Amino acid sequence: MERDENVIYNFWRMRKTTMEMCYDRNYEVTQKDIDVSLKDFIEVFGDRPSEDRPSRSALSYIVKHKKNEKNRLYVCFVNKKKPGKEAVKCCFDFLEAHNLNRIVLVLQEEMTPAGKKLVLEVSKKFKIEIFFESELMQNITKHELVPQHIILSKHEKMKVLEKYKIKETALPKILLSDPISRYYGASRGQVFKIIRRLRFPTQQPPIFDDFPEFTNFAELREDKSCISYRLVV
């Protein structure tokens, strides 16, 4: 059995990452929520996960979107190591009871076939995202080699297409399954604006070197940053 101090540290890390993820999606999460120290986390939740102090489910929470109060997200940490139909059904029953339609399921391991079948059945009713705990130990957007990504509004997307006089299908692509797309909760058809900060003033934008087909849809700004765009597919 894993030691309590290791488990509680992992609990703190992955909850912090989900908070950062919600913040970056414009949900009502404050910097204070994100910056909770391990010590303060333990004071609130306890330090004996082997005795369910806390259980994984105690880490769950609901957040409301800043621009749309009806858009509420349930971040659900699932207790069951390999959740089956009953464990997953409890999560969706919670959505029903609280009039929610969007959920992030945080799992330790893959669901059973019965659990996966239920997710598929209710996916038309609820927006369901699945992350594994191992994916949330670090925030991928904080890595120094990952450029800033911003999802454009519909109006901003149209302005880009008009500027380059193209259809959206002409833009470079990023998969819906890409870790960045998943982190931001992107949908097919949305466009990411990507801002790459060049380390040296004389550095050629790497996007031009590595992806010459992107050259027509990228800009080198006066501050020596490079802006490009990708369509989520």
UniProtKB/TrEMBL annotation:
One of its GO terms (cellular component) is RNA polymerase III complex. GO terms for molecular function: DNA binding; DNA-directed RNA polymerase activity. Residues 7-89 form the RNA polymerase Rpb5 N-terminal domain. Keywords: DNA-directed RNA polymerase, Nucleus, Transcription. InterPro entries: Arch_Rpo5/euc_Rpb5 (IPR014381), RNA_pol_Rpb5_N (IPR005571), RNA_pol_Rpb5_N_sf (IPR036710), RNA_pol_subH/Rpb5_C (IPR000783), RPB5-like_sf (IPR035913). Residues 139-197 form the RNA polymerase subunit H/Rpb5 C-terminal domain. Its main location: nucleus. It is found in: Nucleus. Coiled coil: none annotated. One of its GO terms (biological process) is transcription elongation by RNA polymerase I. Belongs to the archaeal Rpo5/eukaryotic RPB5 RNA polymerase subunit family. This is DNA-directed RNA polymerases I, II, and III subunit RPABC1. It comes from Trichinella patagoniensis. The gene is rpb-5.
